[in-house]
Here is the input.
Amino acid sequence: MLEQLAHFAAALRAAGLRVGLGDEVDAAAALALIDLLDRAEVHRALRIALKLPPEAWEVYDRLFREYWDGIRAPRHEALERALREERARPQWRWDGERVRLALPQDEDDDEPEGDTPGYSPEAVLRRKPFERCSAAEIAALERLLQRLAPQLAAQRTRRLVPTRGRGHVDLRRSFRHALRSEGDLVRLARRTRAIEEPSLVVLYDTSGSMEAYTRMLLAFAFALRRSIRKVEIFAFNTSLARVTRMISPAEVARTLERLAAGVPDWSGGTRIGACLEEFNARYRDAVVNRHTTVLVFSDGLDHGEGALLGRAMRELRARARRVVWLNPLAGDARYRPEADGMLAALPYVDHFGAAHNFDSLAGLLRHLA
Here is the structure.
């Protein structure tokens, strides 16, 4: 982000706008105080922090689209010439020991420009289907999952709560505090967006058709359990088992062995409707409420009656805040949810998606926030 900001400021200077190093420092500080996912907020914050006059806004808007939106905006000849001159000037650079005045490199030595991505082993691994991963790659993905789950636990709501740190000024509370000091605003009261602790119920299909995905999906549940306090985990196939207290997030392999020995019919058949009906009868009222998101990981290949599954899903959806169903088979572009079980469940699902690789699990976060 800072490197991109430096390039953006250099382009503004090359276009004739007065942007100094102090302005860049202010812009970097502003980016730390705003929502970086709000494009309009970033646009306004940088324009204010860089202290640009109204007559410079047109140039600023054009360069902002180019450097921050990825849109190659058309340039005038004067701007092209100024940018070339900016690149041709000697630049002060840090070489690891001291700041030196570095001469510009020849055009042949320049790094390639454009949108062509370089090779990244992690990026390739994130997109690789779980069933094609080796044991070493599975271990690497489990480490990535440990970094993914805390992002969900740190989601902020729109509700503002008092804070002693940085945040929005709360004028009403500030004036009330001022009454204690005879009207002097000694300290400004502030508010910030509250962190909402999610409530999750995870239902895992551990039948034979899900065996290729069981380890990674359970590792994802373990990572959620480590980061979020309100998580309940259930495994189902031909019967239902509550496994929340049977798991050890630090020992995935050993926990899987314990579950395989302790959960009836592990890697066997599937009776999704009967298992969900049992969940509703025994556990739903205790672990599901209007704040709870229910995650179902299953391929939807049910050996039972579709009507039973539909009825159980309707009862579950009536009590939960949201029902999310992730199907590893949905990672194939040719997949269509035509199995009887999936057809019966889909009318009561708020979000239906894939669960075949790391990126599909990472995309789940925006639906859980």
